[in-house]
Amino acid sequence: MLLAQTLSAVEAGRAAAQPQVGDVSLAPKLTIDDGRLDWKQPALAIGRRARGVTPEPGAWTTLDGQRVKLEPVRLRPSETDLQPGAVFLDGKSVLVGTGSHAVELTRIQPSGKKMMAAADWARGMATLESVVFE
């Protein structure tokens, strides 16, 4: 909306250029460490971090000491009984507990494997009862 109004004002000759005010701010390049998800954080923060680092350097966590890459998650505010990092299969949805409520994994890439649907990964596990992301 603001962009459309500004372009209309420029076209009509009503917009006046103004020099930038304040110091220049720089955003450092994201590193692999920036993509690590902390499951004790609220779900909203985890979702934002995962989207912010995808596709590169990528969101990730660890499982049994191995790095696991994740694609952005979906918020599941109705699920509040999972501990941070605990993984639970709910039908075809793979849920992970956070500091507030659960998130749903969309896709996952275990170490040494290709990216796959989270539900496919969960079905390949013997049991999810003891699976907790670090």
Compute the separation of the termini in Å.
42 Å
SS content category? alpha+beta
Strand order of the largest sheet: 1-2-7-8
Oligomer: single chain
Describe the structure.
- With 134 residues, the protein is of the alpha+beta class.
- The chain has a single domain, classed as Formyl transferase, C-terminal domain (Methionyl-tRNA Fmet Formyltransferase, Chain A, domain 2).
- The protein has helices at residues 2-12, 43-52, 118-124, and strands at residues 59-63, 66-70, 74-76, 87-90, 93-96, 102-105, 107-109, 116-117.
- Strands 1-2-7-8 form a four-stranded antiparallel beta sheet. Strands 3-6-5-4 form a four-stranded antiparallel beta sheet, covered by helices on one side.
List the defining traits of the structure above:
elongated; 134 residues; four-stranded antiparallel β-sheet; alpha+beta; single chain
Offer a quick outline of the entry.
This protein is of the alpha+beta class and 134 residues long.
Topology, pairings included?
Elements: H1 2-12, H2 43-52, E1 59-63, E2 66-70, E3 74-76, E4 87-90, E5 93-96, E6 102-105, E7 107-109, E8 116-117, H3 118-124
Antiparallel strand pairs: 1-2, 2-7, 3-6, 4-5, 5-6, 7-8
